[in-house]
Design brief:
The complex is a heterodimer of chains A (149) and B (208). By secondary structure, chain A is mainly alpha-helical. Chain A is built from six helices and no strands. The relative contact order of chain A is 0.08. The model of chain A has no long low-confidence stretch (mean pLDDT 87). Chain B is an alpha/beta fold. Chain B is 42% helix and 15% strand. The longest helix of chain B is centred in the N-terminal third of the chain and has 35 residues. The radius of gyration of chain B is 28 Å and the shape is elongated. The chains are: A mainly alpha (149), B alpha/beta (208).
Amino acid sequence: MKPAFAILFAILIATPAYAVSDPGEMLPNRAQELRAEAIGHQLRCLVCQNESIEDSDADLARDLRRIIRQRLVAGDSDKQIIDWMVARYGNFVRLRPPFDAMTLVLWGAPGIALVAGFAAAFFARRRRPATPEPLSDDERQRLADLLKT
Amino acid sequence: MTDSPDAVPPPLAGRGQGEGTPRTSTFRRRALLLAPLGVAAVGGTAFWLLLQRMSEGTYDPHGLPSMLIGKPLPKFALPGLPPSQGFSSTDVVASGRPTLVNFFASWCIPCVQEAPTLMALKQQGVPIWGIAYKDKADATQGFLHENGDPYTRIASDEPGTVAINFGLYGVPETYVVDKSGIVRWRWAGGLSDDIVRQSLDPLLQGLA
């Protein structure tokens, strides 16, 4: 393999460096660890608020990562683990808010914007005369005079 | 509103149809001119109120609603600082009085700031039960020695697991538990005299 290809290959297979830098935190079972990471990526770190707990170095995030792994090994489903977190921290803990009455406008916003855009375009078109009226003789004369100078 | 002639451009020959009468047209122009001003005024007032409440400490933009409000106190049993024994959720409820449960730590700066407010609450006779979060016993003792001890009883949550059942996301946090053991109020962050006067006092009076 050419060196350039080797470098490209290395970049492609590289995974981002997560805050889980402590290998002791990771589950020995690879499949379980991947599941735990996938759950962690859906949950917000309550301390930093814009990172997932999987990316965060905060103490609380580490505690929550540990709880995810403990419950996962104990046999909880992904949904049960997320529900456990939501019961304590509310929907805010989910980086992807669920669709409910509170988030109706949030999730509906693209649809609302689309309908509003079409409505605006429709009314703007209707108000504009289909073809501009031709210039009157006076106006044509004025235009000719202006262009002459 | 007057229709001043210069506010409306004189209709060009052959035009001026389909735009409404000059009167409504002037009105629309004025409304359109004033609309951004109105939006700015409303937005500015809202923003000013927001900043006002933030500087008073009655609004925290990072604050989260607590899931515990209206629910029973989470079950726990924690050790104390030796030689005194800790307490359990059952002990809090058994006290039969509206009680403050305050999470604190010796390493937490807002905890130092809220200490005088807690001491004042103690003077008022409000029972405050303290839970030291992720703190070593001797560090907690040193903190209480230095900043005063407002607590009726103290427990230690060194692993921080009980705190997670409360939905705690930082220290200090203060919960109000009513006589029957239902959580009524949560404040995340340091308590100030303003918050006590505006929120806590009226609440405690209502629960008494």
